[in-house]
Amino acid sequence: MKPVKVGVLGLGTVGGGTVNVLKRNAQEISRRAGREIMITHASARDLTRERICDTQGITLSTDPYEIINDPEIEIVLELMGGTDLAKELVLQAIANGKHIVTANKALIALHGNEIFAAASKANVMVAYEAAVAGGIPIIKTIREGLSGNQVNWLAGIINGTGNFILTEMRDKGRDFADVLTEAQALGYAEADPTFDVEGIDAGHKLMILASIAFGIPLQFENVYTEGITKITRADVEYAGELGYRIKHLGIARKTANGIELRVHPTLIPERRLIANVDGVMNAILVQADAVGPTLYYGAGAGSEATASAVIADVVDVVRALALDAQNRVPYLGFQESEINNLPILAPAEIETTYYLRLTVEDKPGTLADITGILAKQNISIEALIQKEPKQGETRVSIIMLTQKTIEKEMDAAISAIENLSSVTGQVTRIRLETLG
Ligand SMILES: NC(=O)C1=CN([C@@H]2O[C@H](COP(=O)(O)OP(=O)(O)OC[C@H]3O[C@@H](n4cnc5c(N)ncnc54)[C@H](O)[C@@H]3O)[C@@H](O)[C@H]2O)C=CC1
Ligand SMILES: N[C@@H](CC=O)C(=O)O
Ligand code: NA
């Protein structure tokens, strides 16, 4: 059989890694796919830039349209990032009858519904394993490996950059900005790193996971996102004293009232395996009715780890070329006619427990005022630590863990507490999940 010709859009961290791994493992990969896979063309913005891969034998261009309009190319790898040009190119490539493999979670989370519809119409495949948790085969696992289950909830560390920052801050006491710079140099971070540290990237990935877990349309606008920029070393230490780790989690849960979709820093008991997932590693805990809890762990970012997922998708596409569209795995794991728009819970209705940290004047009555406000909102305290004032200071930190409460009750309590004259600055609030 003649080789499958592949064109690559974007030759950076992921594109370069894909070229390297495809070259190194060419024989093994074609033995698995049943055909030789050849990258014949690649496009990048600046052809003079030094590359991490050897581009010998690949025709390079600054014009991505040369690739998507080339009649010889069967599969296009979109490894550029961004949502405007990437969307335009992907839709045009689909219209030209090309199959797509992408690592672009923003593209799928924001425009996946439209892209999948266009691909169905054109009878081509769109694969996106690398878009969620890098090298971990989580899309394949949920869409195929868990297809006999009802997924109840999933919770994941799904941003490598954020987890790397939190780990280095905790273990080595390093500064946030300094670790972020290192994550960028290592190729982990997004082109705009605020996507990593403000929870947007994790939100994109969570949306994709929730869609394939519950059979709901992609709707990123309904994901609650909060980043890690407000986490201080003090919070990390106090959480440790209480037996918890702070992790940036994406959580999707089916409740009687709707689906929770939320990304935020979360206290997790340190005995949980997922609490011990450190550095750039990602992990996703999936609770499903038949199999129970399963945990998937691996590199969430990085050149070759992500290339591993890109190439697995290419192999899947090559294998499936022999099948008709009806016999392929559906884009979101559920048959297209079975995607249901279930209600998504508003953040104010979410029920969880909380870690609170406040700075207060060390004077009689302050604690009573605070606990009185919490009681008024039906919030019970599970644990409380009051730190001794440092020498020469009159202010102290109070750290509390609450029992389960509805977010809007907590919002009201926090505003009332912040209005007390004895309380300084804002109350730090971090949600807590036992994940049991
Ligand atoms: N770096 C990582 O560890 C991971 C990245 N991803 C995703 O993979 C995609 C690529 O990421 P990286 O390789 O890290 O980015 P990168 O910045 O290292 O490489 C991007 C490449 O695309 C080209 N490019 C970007 N915009 C272009 C434009 N407008 N016109 C022509 N060429 C353009 C650049 O010249 C460069 O060659 C993104 O969607 C990212 O979210 C997914 C999983 C892991
Ligand atoms: N910037 C992302 C890259 C992988 O998706 C991350 O840090 O996880
Ligand atoms: Na993956």
Automatic annotation (TrEMBL):
PROSITE patterns: ACT, HOMOSER_DHGENASE. The active site is at 205 (proton donor). CDD domains: ACT_HSDH-Hom. NADPH binds at residue 105. This is Homoserine dehydrogenase. InterPro entries: ACT-like_dom_sf, ACT_dom, Asp/hSer_DH_NAD-bd, HDH, HDH_cat, HDH_CS, NAD(P)-bd_dom_sf. Keywords: Amino-acid biosynthesis, Metal-binding, Methionine biosynthesis, NAD, NADP, Oxidoreductase, Threonine biosynthesis. Its EC number is 1.1.1.3. Pathway: Amino-acid biosynthesis; L-methionine biosynthesis via de novo pathway; L-homoserine from L-aspartate: step 3/3; Amino-acid biosynthesis; L-threonine biosynthesis; L-threonine from L-aspartate: step 3/5. It catalyses: L-homoserine + NAD(+) = L-aspartate 4-semialdehyde + NADH + H(+). GO terms for biological process: methionine biosynthetic process; threonine biosynthetic process. Gene3D superfamilies: 3.30.70.260, Dihydrodipicolinate Reductase, domain 2, NAD(P)-binding Rossmann-like Domain.
